[in-house]
Amino acid sequence: MQPLQQPRLFYALWPNAQVAQALQHAQAAVQGGRLTHIQDFHLTLVFLGNQPSEVLPQLVDVLDDIPRPPEEIILDQYGSFGAHSVLWLGPSQPPASLLHLQSELVQGLRRRGVAFRDENRFRPHVTLGRQGQLAGEAQALPIRWSTPSLVLAESTGKPNGPRYRVLACSSATPGVL
Questions:
Q1: Global pTM?
Q2: pLDDT of residue 159
Q3: I want to staple 175 with a disulfide (CB 3.0 to 4.6 A). Which of 35, 104, 163, 169 is the partner?
Q4: Which superfamily, per CATH, for 8-169?
């Protein structure tokens, strides 16, 4: 008998359609590689990894115990990192409210005893593509991301790379479901 697959989960800020289109235009700076699908843009706050299905209700509850997301995030800096050549766009000056939100999520998970890999360094970014490179002189035009939605999402493995599915949205933010 095959063991049940545990969903691969994360908390993220999810853009509206207008911001997703702006992010898609920002992908012009990515050369080669695999681009992120327009419906999959997000800013990961906490990666939970594989979680047992029984924990899902607790994870949804965490959404309603934390402060509202920042009113606005300015995405104005390209960058890359990691062995998979993650190419991203992020804020050069992350708002304090974004850093506070991420910290509150981590604390909420700890209070509930949810096991996850706690990243010591939070680097807010939206992945534009993987395994490519940024154009040499790429200058980011600022993208003003207003009232992002806070969500619990699942990463689903696909042959051409990961795709994402929103499972729950904070009641304090506009929904994307």
A1: 0.89
A2: 67
A3: 169
A4: Cyclic phosphodiesterase (3.90.1140.10)
